[in-house]
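Handoff note, outgoing to incoming analyst
You'll be picking up this chain. Sequence as last confirmed:
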Amino acid sequence: MMKKSSFALLVLTGEDETDDKKLLARQNVVHETGLFQGRLGFSRAIVLLEEGTEEFSNLAGIQQIRFSKGNIKEAFGDVLAVLRREFHEPLRIRPPFAISFDTAFGNGIPAHAVITQTSAL
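Most recent structure output, in case you need it:
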């Protein structure tokens, strides 16, 4: 999948709790963040960081989009702005739109997001 990708959204949510009650992103997601940043560059591997999730040490100073716990939808406008910036063309996605998450791993954690246009209500 990485070789076919030109952009990555990496969703870091607090899934693992430490003994001192800190919430950490899953280690595989932290690893994948580094892989995509190395392959695509920092401007095309965007981190979405959930409120309350500890930053890992080399994330400080890197572009990230933060969102309130359990409310990833509030980050969608920022995600669309980054997509427009990186692909230098107007996206044809206009409100209303829907973003769905593929939870292919069966544990409820998003594997990837899909943005689709919906009809006006």
